[in-house]
C-alpha cells in the first residue's frame, strides 16, 4: 500500500460551515437501448471501486448479488489517495491491468479534459475508449438491477422490484439524507452548531430505523432490496470509523440492539460480509482525512469477531433472496 504525503491530502472541513456534498455527478447511463451512447454490453465496461468507500461498496455488493462478475469487470483502488485521485496501489506496478492507468483521474480526463469536480468511486469506465462513463452511484446500482437483466445469474434476487419501488425510493431518500450522508455532516462539520444539528438528525433517524426494523427483517418488504444495501454500508463502518473519527458517539452500533442484529444478519448473508474489508475502511478514513485525524494513526480496534455472532433475525421470517438463491461463496 502506497502512503500518500500529508501535504498532498485534501481538506474536508470548511471552518464555520456545515458540510455540503457536491452531488453533481456524471449522469450518463448504460442502458439496454443505448440512449446515452453506451449500450449494455458484456465485457465492454470496467467498474472501478475502492472497498474503503461506502458508495462504491454498494456497487460491489449489488454486482455480486446479481452475478454480474463475468459481464462487468472490476478494478480496485487502494484505500488511500491524495487530493488528485484514487489510485491503483494494489495492482502490480500500481497500474490497473485492464485500463493501463495509474490514477482513476486519467479515465475522467480522457472524457472531460477539464473535469472540475472530485474524482470519485464508484465509476464505470468504457474499456475501448478508456473514458469514464458515469460516477452517478445511486443510478449505477439501480441500472445493474434493471438494465443488465440479460446478464444476471440464475437465481439473482429482485433488488428493486417494481411494486416496491415507491417505498424503496422513499426510504432511500431519508436514509441518504440523515444517515449515509449524515455521518459525513457530523464528521466534516465546520462548527459546533452544524455538528450538533447533524448529530441529532442522525440519531433521530437511527431510532426511527430501529423502530421500523423491530418487527420486520428487512427495510422494505420481506426480502433484501436496494434499501438494505444502502443502509448496510454505513452501518458496517459505524463502530470502526464513524463513532470515533466522525464523533457519532451517542452509542456504538453494537449498543443499538435492533440495528446491530440487522447489520449482523446482512453481514452473514453471502454478498455482504464477503464484500466488506474493515482494514481498508479504517486505513482510508484515518489516513486520508488528515484535517480530522492529523497523526494518520489507524486504531487497532474494534474487535470484529462479534460480527459473526448469532443475530436471531430469521425468527422474523422473510426470505433474503425471495424466489432466488444466494451467490456462490467466494474462494
UniProtKB/TrEMBL annotation:
Pfam families: GST_C_2, GST_N_2. One of its GO terms (molecular function) is glutathione transferase activity. Keywords: Transferase. InterPro entries: Glutathione-S-Trfase_C-like, Glutathione-S-Trfase_C_sf, Glutathione_S-Trfase, Glutathione_S-Trfase_N, GST_Omega-like_C, GST_Omega/GSH, Thioredoxin-like_sf. Gene3D superfamilies: 1.20.1050.10, Glutaredoxin. It comes from Gordonia phthalatica. Glutathione binds at residue 86. GO terms for cellular component: cytoplasm. This is Glutathione S-transferase. The record marks 242, 285 as: Lowers pKa of active site Cys. PROSITE patterns: GST_CTER. SUPFAM superfamilies: GST C-terminal domain-like, Thioredoxin-like. Residues 299-331 are annotated as: Disordered. Residues 161-285 form the GST C-terminal domain. It comes from the Bacteria. The active site is at residues 53, 184.
Amino acid at each position: 500500500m502506497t502512503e500518500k504525503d500529508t501535504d498532498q491530502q485534501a481538506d474536508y472541513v470548511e471552518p464555520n460551515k456545515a458540510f455540503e456534498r457536491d452531488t453533481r455527478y456524471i449522469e450518463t447511463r448504460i442502458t439496454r437501448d443505448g440512449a446515452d451512447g453506451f449500450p449494455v454490453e458484456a465485457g465492454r465496461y470496467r467498474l472501478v471501486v475502492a472497498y474503503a468507500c461506502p458508495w462504491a461498496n454498494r456497487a460491489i455488493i449489488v454486482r455480486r448479488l446479481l452475478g454480474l462478475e463475468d459481464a462487468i469487470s472490476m478494478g480496485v483502488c487502494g484505500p488511500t489517495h491524495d487530493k488528485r485521485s484514487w489510485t491503483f496501489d494494489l495492482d502490480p506496478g500500481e497500474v490497473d491491468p485492464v485500463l493501463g492507468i495509474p490514477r482513476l483521474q486519467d479515465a475522467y480526463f480522457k472524457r472531460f479534459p477539464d473535469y472540475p469536480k472530485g474524482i470519485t468511486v464508484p465509476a464505470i469506465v468504457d474499456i475501448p475508449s478508456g473514458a469514464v462513463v458515469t460516477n452517478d452511484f445511486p443510478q449505477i446500482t439501480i441500472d445493474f438491477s434493471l438494465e443488465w437483466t440479460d446478464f444476471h445469474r440464475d437465481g439473482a434476487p429482485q433488488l428493486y422490484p417494481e411494486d416496491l419501488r415507491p417505498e424503496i425510493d422513499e426510504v432511500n431518500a431519508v436514509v441518504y439524507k440523515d444517515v449515509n450522508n449524515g455521518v459525513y455532516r457530523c464528521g466534516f462539520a465546520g462548527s459546533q452548531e452544524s455538528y450538533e444539528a447533524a448529530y441529532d438528525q442522525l440519531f433521530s433517524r437511527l431510532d426511527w430505523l430501529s423502530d421500523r426494523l423491530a418487527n420486520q427483517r428487512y427495510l422494505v418488504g420481506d426480502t433484501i432490496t436496494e434499501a438494505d444495501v444502502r443502509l448496510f454500508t454505513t452501518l458496517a463502518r459505524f463502530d470502526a470509523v464513524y463513532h470515533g473519527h466522525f464523533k457519532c458517539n451517542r452509542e456504538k452500533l453494537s449498543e443499538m440492539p435492533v440495528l446491530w442484529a440487522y447489520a449482523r444478519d446482512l453481514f452473514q448473508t453471502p454478498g455482504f460480509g464477503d464484500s466488506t474489508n474493515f482494514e481498508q475502511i479504517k486505513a482510508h478514513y484515518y489516513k486520508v482525512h488528515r484535517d480530522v485525524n492529523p497523526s494518520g494513526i489507524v486504531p487497532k480496534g474494534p474487535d470484529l469477531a462479534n460480527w459473526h455472532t448469532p443475530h436471531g433475525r430469521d425468527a422474523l421470517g422473510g426470505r433474503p433472496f425471495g424466489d432466488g438463491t444466494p451467490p456462490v461463496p467466494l474462494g
